[in-house]
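Sync notes, pocket subgroup
Present: LS, DG
LS reminded everyone that the earlier model was apo-only. Rerun requested with tryptophan included. Inputs:
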Amino acid sequence: MASNEGTSSNVKGTILSGMRPTGRLHLGNYLGALENWVNLQQDFRCIYSIVDIHALTTLESPSDVENIQPNIHEMALDWLAAGVDPEQSIVFIQSHVPEVMTLHTLLSMVTPLGWLMRVPTFKEKVRQMDETEESVNYGLVGYPVLQTADIIIYKADTVPVGQDQLPHLELAREIVRRFNHRFGDTFPEPQARLTEAPLILGLEGQQKMSKSLDNHIDLASTPEETAQRVLTAFTDPQRLRRSDPGRPEVCNVYSLHKLFSTEEDVATVHEECTTAQRGCVDCKRHLAGSVNAFLEPLRERRRVLEEKPDYVREILLEGGRKARSIAQETIGEVYEKMGLGLPV
Ligand code: TRP
Ligand code: SF4
């Protein structure tokens, strides 16, 4: 497999990002993260990880385990279909690089427990899972330490993430500072790079698009499924009759038009809505057409990949081999700095 990572694409630094294997991704995941990942490949050396070990921190039922492999495969298909390019970037599964767990353990020696207990995502997860800080898994407490290891084992300096991950990045920098201070300069302090995408609301127009709220459109959905889902979207609640003028500013269908329809169409929608020349059902059919046109090339690439599961596996294995060789070098350095290994 040809690869130019480390050469021409290595101009602005090293990017590391990851997603937990949750299965198929939706439009919100695409606009909020994946699109950015694809674009970053032009200027950075990019390493993208399917973080399956992180998925184990919140296991709740046996089916969660059964779902890991299919979820990894589905998510890999979406990444590749969206344009994550294994010729340019390293795409791999976290657990294929067991060295990250070694680094996690070693970093835990310089991470005060208080730092971890204060992370807002930790408190929130404990609440969500109906646990207490005493009953929760040790693994969940260490979630951000593992995330730090994910990043710094490749000496990545830039981490594209959403707002919710900022506390994890702050913690990663604190761990790095402590490590570097105690054992000598080893890791760069990783910086978050926020995605500028607008918040993508779900079809009911109230909350963020998400799988758990079932208000989403999967990247892999068929044209029929997409149209059906779009038709369930909420519109201007004050527009009761077809003859009432609508208010595009408060209508999520209009927001979605702005993301997926041409500028000209968006202007038409605005004009025809505010003058009651178009009905909401027609407006949604129009939107479904735009979303489908947008998704078509992704679907086409996905169809090809779905026929070749061994090829997708090989991409992930090859990515794992490349990632692992970088990780092993880092672990060698860390062992030496921390006084481990054979005496010399
Ligand atoms: N915690 C991240 C999330 O929930 C996933 C993640 C794990 C990650 N390791 C990472 C993101 C390293 C960026 C870099 O979205
Ligand atoms: Fe929303 Fe379109 Fe209906 Fe106007 S016509 S309220 S933009 S769905």
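DG: The first strand starts at residue 14 and ends at 19.
LS: The CA atoms of residues 122 and 141 lie 7 Å apart.
Action: DG to write up.
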